[in-house]
Amino acid sequence: MIRERPTMLIRTTTIVAAGAIALAGCGSSEETRILDTQKVESAIEQSILNQRDQEADVSCPSGVHQEEAIEFSCVASVSSQDTRFYVTQTDGSGNVHYEAR
């Protein structure tokens, strides 16, 4: 499930997007769970499409542990221009917040 904040900002030079994504982990609660970063990629691509009406190709790292406060970044390519998105996990259930800077 993807939920976006109702007040997203669109700027000429950068895209600022915030979203929360419920992502399923792998394995039991005793094992290290891995975040489904493909869902993060899809959510960022959808935010760019909704805000800028442009198709994007987003790449996030794989193997990210699903744990509160873990941060990582993804790169979105739009019209041959790259934008870095900073992602923070807001809990251990796979919810994240992301924004471009």
How many beta-strand elements? 8
What is the end-to-end distance?
24 Å
Question: What is the 3D form?
Answer: elongated
Rg for CA atoms:
13 Å
The assigned structural class equals: alpha+beta
- The residue fraction in helices comes out at 10-25%
How confident overall, as mean pLDDT? 80
pLDDT under 50 segments (min length 5)?
Answer: 1-18, 22-28
Kindly give the count of domains.
1
Percent of residues in β-strands: 25-35%
Please tally the helical runs, counting DSSP H or I stretches of 4 or more residues: 1
Element pattern in H and E: EEEEHEEEE
Strand numbers in spatial order across the main sheet = 5-6-7-8
Structural account:
The radius of gyration is 13 Å and the shape is elongated. Helix content is 16%, strand content 35%. The chain has 1 helix and 8 strands. The chain has one helix at residues 37-52; strands at 2-4, 9-10, 15-16, 19-21, 57-59, 71-78, 81-89, 96-100. The protein is of the alpha+beta class and 101 residues long. It has one domain. It has a 4-stranded antiparallel β-sheet with strand order 5-6-7-8, with helices on one face. It has a two-stranded antiparallel sheet with strand order 1-4. It starts with a strand and ends with a strand.
